[in-house]
């Protein structure tokens, strides 16, 4: 994945004097600073007979001159950097994160534009290609810097990325910007013109004024970009009190491998995970004896105060009430929330329904939906049904959402789904005075089990950008720390809740 395209494509790219996409990112960042890459498995195994590594685009957060920035970099070694449907989705997700967290956005442009065979899934709809430029305009209007570096082709609609940026850079004899390339110009007007004459650095820097800075090569362009960022005059203003005393967890991070296994039916105490993530393994648990299938409490992560909401079993009415109460506390104090998901859902059955599980579960879902503090979610086990909603799944706008490799995500487990569909078919047969044979039951169950097994995989999820990446469990502390730091570039607004049904 990290290599991008095949060897031939990479050699062709570097023979032109170009750096590979991840080399460009590394050159742009502050030396020895981390890069939080997002969704590296995007588009994996999604397009028949086509390998589109990382969806032909690298996105992530890194420090440039001390400033956290979102970087969106086309990989021209993968399908000429063209935009597949999932490339668009990944680009838009990066912009969404940048907008939510007010991160300056750097576009390293080197793309052949839309992938034409997929045009109907790329071009016309609200979250298709045009939304990229809409987001760029809106973010600029909100004071979020937009900087483009043209390091290769920038054709047709893609020309608006640098044209709409606050500032831009172009590399001589390498970067080109035009609405229509030489072949289309020839066909439409009869004019014969080279790419460099039509939209190269010399013309745009000296004549059209489309570009602002003239670079001699990739490294020069990236140094100019660093200079631009150094002049942004931005200061991070966190709304929370950060402790200068940061203690590492008292327990080894790789203990997690022995605590959480691949068998999700085997229970574990989520407090053991928390102890290996938070500062000094210190956790002030809230309502420890009440609603014990949900663990809530306060801790610090790299000095930042956090509230943790973690599953320790199925959610009962008491658990949901406790979760709602705790989320309201964190919102009132403007403390970011971290959700550790491992949930089969809310409790079902006669007793649960009579105790009001629907309305109590709704309270927690309402609290999660309305919470305006930064929300970060890690799926450390199962994520099923409405439990996904109550624990801040993708639909509830966490700033970041990650999955562990052992995680599973679907509307319900495969066994439960196959049981439901088998029962429905059996009841239909009974109404016709017929019965299901064991062979017929197997023919119903097996395809459902196989489908849920495949589609519940974290790799299936990550390929489709249902999350922001699969992380090694031992990286959880580091990844959450980088994500939380990025999130705190934005001010934390007051939270207003809707009606809680009593």
TrEMBL record:
Residues 245-494 form the CoA carboxyltransferase C-terminal domain. One of its GO terms (biological process) is L-leucine catabolic process. It comes from the Eukaryota. Residues 1-244 form the CoA carboxyltransferase N-terminal domain. GO terms for molecular function: methylcrotonoyl-CoA carboxylase activity. Signal peptide: none annotated. It comes from Medioppia subpectinata. Belongs to the AccD/PCCB family. Its EC number is 6.4.1.4. It is an enzyme of class 6 (ligase). InterPro entries: AcCoA_carboxyl_beta (IPR034733), ClpP/crotonase-like_dom_sf (IPR029045), COA_CT_C (IPR011763), COA_CT_N (IPR011762), MCCB/AccD1-like (IPR045190). GO terms for cellular component: methylcrotonoyl-CoA carboxylase complex; mitochondrion. The lineage of its organism: Eukaryota, Metazoa, Ecdysozoa, Arthropoda, Chelicerata. It catalyses: 3-methylbut-2-enoyl-CoA + hydrogencarbonate + ATP = 3-methyl-(2E)-glutaconyl-CoA + ADP + phosphate + H(+). Pathway: Amino-acid degradation; L-leucine degradation; (S)-3-hydroxy-3-methylglutaryl-CoA from 3-isovaleryl-CoA: step 2/3. This is methylcrotonoyl-CoA carboxylase.
